[in-house]
Amino acid sequence: MAGRAGPATRDTSKSPGGWRTRILDRLPGLSAGRPPAVVLAALVGAAGGAFAVFFRELVDASQAFFFGWVRGVLAPLLGPYAVLWIPALGGLLVGPLVYFLAREAKGHGVPEVMEAVALRGGRIRPRVILVKAIASAVTIGSGGSTGREGPIVQMGSAIGSVVGQGLRLSERTVKTLVACGAAAGIAATFNAPIAGVIFAHEVILGEFAGATFTLIVIASVVAAAVAHGLAGNQPAFLVPPYELRHPVEFLFYAVLGVLAGAAGVLFIRTLSWFEDRFDGWKGVPPYAKAAVGGVLVGAVGLLVPEVLGVGHGTMDAILRSEGLPGGPPGVPAGARIAAWAGRAPAGGDPGLAVLVLAGLFLFKLLATSLTLGSGGSGGIMSPSLFLGATLGAAVGTLAHGALPSLTAMPGAYALVGMGAVLAATTQAPIQAILIVFEMTRDYRIILALMMACVVAVLVSTALSADSVYTIKLRRRGIRLRAGRDVTVLQRIPVQEAMTAKPVVVRRDWPLARVIRVMQSSRHNGFPVVDENGHLVGVITLADIRNTYPDEPERRLAVAVEQAMTPNPVVAYPDESLAQVLERLGRYDVGRLPVVARGDPRQLLGVITRSDVIKAYNRRVLQQVPGTAGRGMASLAGPA
């Protein structure tokens, strides 16, 4: 009896990691066909689908609060100008929330997921889920010109990451679950499970792999099923039946593809420009910039209210050709633009329709760039679809006006334009084609859609090396390629390798003192600071030798500021070592001062070639023991 009592009374549930150990014992690896893997993928998909529906309700509640209760309070005081301050109030709430709790929740979210997959093994902080949900709901609900899909992708990816990290799964497994969460977000947002699968492979993972495909499909299908059960099974847009009426239309759709490619690049560069301007703006605290951007967005919305928020209703009207030539009667969107032109806002006037659509395009571009550039939170797919709808409808209006018997109504071109601009902006044509197809469930226009999307991507990639996702990463020194072949140096930030408290010299010191410091420290270059410790330059042994080269005694009394190099090339703590190594070689220097992005005079440290080599070898030893020597030789050669 005693021999049987031990095993019978053993309680592993209370042992450290007991439940986790039992799961891991049954989870030899995450690959297609293994029940535990299927279960995890399905759970991530279900959670992603449910969270997408929850987020949609949260956005609706936020809109009701800001444009119901808040507007009701402000309207008696400000009249129509109340709309000017509602987005500002939203920005006032979002800025501190994101800045102090989860800065990766700023912006449209997808680049942060791509970075996590490529550089951090898919690890995303759990707090991102809640912070992103609240920040994006407040941004959209208060009138910010963004979409829902980016936040849901980031939240779904974070759910997958949290599951993987909680079970202490392998890095490859965590990445797969992150992709499952991203697919679930797209599937539930656009009611497009196939597009979700393609998005996860084409954008998040950067490659197609058979081992992960089945699991991502499961997550996407489960997410769509959960969303259907909770919110209904309706297409995102109710579009009249459109079809290709004559082969001559392929010419118009090709032209639309070219224009969409240029429009996508314009969107990428405009958004990037506003992000750079707000990031470099030193007169306002970082957590207050979203409020300033909100005031500007409110001003745009005061002029053209259709560009606030997601813009679903405006896109729906354009797709039905309401108020456009050949379409049903109605007042076209953007009636205020028509009023500025001194024209009646009635439909049927091709010239007026093109003017109004062009105005909607430009104001939406401005509103979205201000919202996201200033620090708001939301996605870029819906704005891309909006831009595509207005551009396509404008082309369709001109085509239908020229050849009414041979061309479809403007709404058909708006539908194709949505996919084309989305393809150009993301440089991911397959997911763009599938998103539009699954949103409308109309196959009859698929040939035109495919042509326009492919042409748009060809134009976009010819004009811009980066998509709207990768340009944000490239500015951080991260260059992602097909297959996500990221080098070791791209994974290491400068702050991990730099010398945090470097030896510095004062600008008023004589060179004789600097020479003594060089002899004692065995360094041949130093940052130069002023009386307040602010960086003003660098000085090297070469600078000293070039000062009165024929009078070595005279040079000893010269002040550092007369011999130093002012305005030195610098590095930033969040840059990658790959970017720093390229800069060291380009300028043929041995060290770079590391400064704060917000204040180039604030010296944080120094990074040298030797620091880069040491950090590289440390990382290689952690990942692939035994290869450090070969890595050092390859890096040390040019130095």
UniProtKB/TrEMBL annotation:
One Pfam family cited in the UniProt record for this chain: Voltage_CLC
Q: What is its main location?
A: membrane
UniProt-annotated stretches for the region Disordered: 1-20
Transmembrane annotation, as ranges: 37-58, 78-102, 177-199, 211-230, 250-271, 291-311, 352-372, 384-403, 415-437, 443-471
The cellular component terms of Gene Ontology attached to this UniProt record, alphabetical and capped at eight, are: chloride channel complex
Q: Which InterPro entries match?
A: CBS_dom, CBS_dom_sf, Cl-channel_core, ClC, ClC-type_chloride_channel
Keyword presence, Ion transport: yes
**PANTHER family given for it?**
CHLORIDE CHANNEL PROTEIN CLC-E
- The name this protein carries in UniProt is Cl-channel voltage-gated family protein
The organism that produces this protein has a lineage beginning with: Bacteria, Bacillati, Bacillota, Clostridia, Eubacteriales
